[in-house]
Design brief:
Blueprint lengths: L7 E6 L9 E6 L4 E2 L21 E3 L4 E10 L5 E10 L9 E2 L1 E2 L3 E8 L28 E8 L5
Parallel strand pairs: 4-7
Antiparallel strand pairs: 1-2, 3-8, 4-5, 5-6, 9-10
C-alpha cells in the first residue's frame, strides 16, 4: 500500500549530526531494503526493531511500516517481508527508526584486518625486532557486496 504511484524523493542530510553540511535526495519506492538485523521473527524482550505487532519508522521519511507477512523460500529462510506503510501521525512515535534503501546501487566493499599485530609497531620497547617483524601473518581481506542509496554517487 505504498502511499504514492511513483517513487518519492526524500531529502536526507549528508551528515545527520550536522545538517549544515548539506543534503542529498534518495528515492523512496514501494520496495525497500533493510538490514537483516533490523528484523526478527521471534524477538527477544527489549528488541525494538521490526517484528510482528511492532511497527518501526523508516528514517528521514515520516513513514511507518508494519509487518503483515513473512515470505520464506524453499530452504525456510526469509526471502522478503510484506509490510503496510502509513504516514506517521503526530501523536504516534515508533519505538525505533531503521535505515533503509530503495532502488539501490550495488557496490563492492573490501574489508581488511590490521596489518600489524601491535598498536605501535615502530616502538622498539613494544616490538624489539622492528616493524617488519610485527606483520600480521593472518591478514584476511574479504570483499562483500552492499546496497547503497543512489543519492550518494
Amino acid at each position: 500500500n505504498f502511499p504514492a504511484g511513483k517513487p518519492l524523493d526524500i531529502q536526507v542530510p549528508n551528515f545527520p549530526a550536522d545538517e549544515t553540511k548539506g543534503f542529498h535526495q534518495v528515492p523512496f519506492a514501494s520496495t525497500v531494503f533493510i538490514e537483516k538485523t533490523d528484523f526478527k521473527e521471534e524477538p527477544e524482550p527489549g528488541y525494538k526493531r521490526l517484528a510482528r505487532g511492532q511497527p518501526v519508522g523508516l528514517r528521514h521519511t515520516g513513514y511507518v511500516i508494519e509487518l503483515q507477512q513473512v515470505v520464506k523460500g524453499p530452504s525456510g529462510c526469509v526471502e522478503c517481508l510484506e509490510v503496510t506503510c502509513r504516514r506517521a501521525d503526530a501523536g504516534e512515535k515508533p519505538k525505533a527508526f531503521i535505515h533503509w534503501v530503495s532502488q539501490p546501487l550495488g557496490c563492492e566493499i573490501r574489508l581488511y584486518e590490521r596489518l600489524f599485530q601491535h598498536k605501535n609497531p615502530e616502538d622498539p620497547a613494544e616490538v624489539p625486532g622492528g616493524f617488519l617483524s610485527d606483520l600480521n601473518p593472518l591478514v584476511f581481506n574479504r570483499t562483500v557486496t552492499l546496497k547503497e542509496d543512489p543519492g550518494k554517487v
